[in-house]
Amino acid sequence: MTPRQLKTFLAVIRHGNLTRAAVEVNLAQSSLSDHIQALEEEMGVELFLRSRQGVAPTPAGMALKAYAEEILALNDEAQTAARVAAGISEASITLGTLETIAAERLAPWLSRLRRQNPDLGLKLKVGGSGELHAKLQHGSVDIVFTFDRGQQDERFVTRRIASEPLVLIAAGSSQIPPPESLAALRTAPFIATAAGCIYRHLLDTAFAEADLAAPAVAAEADSIATIIRLVASGAGYGLVPSLALGPSIARGDVVELPWPGRALAASLVMMWRRRRVQPPHIAFLLQSASENLSPIRPADARLRHAG
Length: 307
What we know:
Elements: H1 3-15, H2 18-25, H3 29-43, E1 48-51, E2 54-57, H4 59-85, E3 92-97, H5 99-116, E4 121-126, H6 129-137, E5 143-147, E6 156-171, H7 182-185, E7 190-192, H8 198-209, E8 217-220, H9 224-232, E9 237-241, H10 246-251, E10 254-257, E11 265-273, H11 280-292
């Protein structure tokens, strides 16, 4: 099996469609089919089930998936180690992050970093937490900045670099009294991100820990800025990171209300692939992030996986 075959195999799994997978790996569909057929012949098993709805991995295909990801990661690591040893490692890094973190935490730091290191190439990709983790898995980003959900993956290092408080907000013109309890708040309409997003996860978890059903979601929005605007219009409550509120609070668009329960906060973490040899430019950026992105006290620091 070759790296190209494995990349093709993983692209088919991601898309569940040969045409879209062929576009991703820049192959004609017939050539992609040849790659998959050759891999199946070498493995001696069928890797995909074909139907009119698309293709889906067989149990054998799913078993191969994890190994294919590791083989490709090790292949990339070997190439990186050789280039580092030869002194020709590329100084280009792709970062993945959530919209709020990008605007409020990363932008000032990256701007300074770029001015001080003009030869360092930086790319920034913004997406949801699940999308970012997938990008890290298949190597399209080098480092991810997101909020911790407590999920562990031995392939990656996760380092906590700050704690971001979450706040309850309502429309500035509403004059809503502070909620007396979580039970009372449960009946109020909320504007929230979609299920699976870290902010929605923290909202649902807060009520679950109090043995209460999550509140009704009046509307879902895919960005914190949109949630704040909808709350300002009077559409409902919102639970958002305090770092995103500055201008809206100053204008009086929204007001912050006391949360009637245990204070909520999200741990800001950065994640990267574990390697035997870390490229110097990535090691440099990780060190800079640890030192400049609102570092927490050493006693509170948590490095879940050494690497």
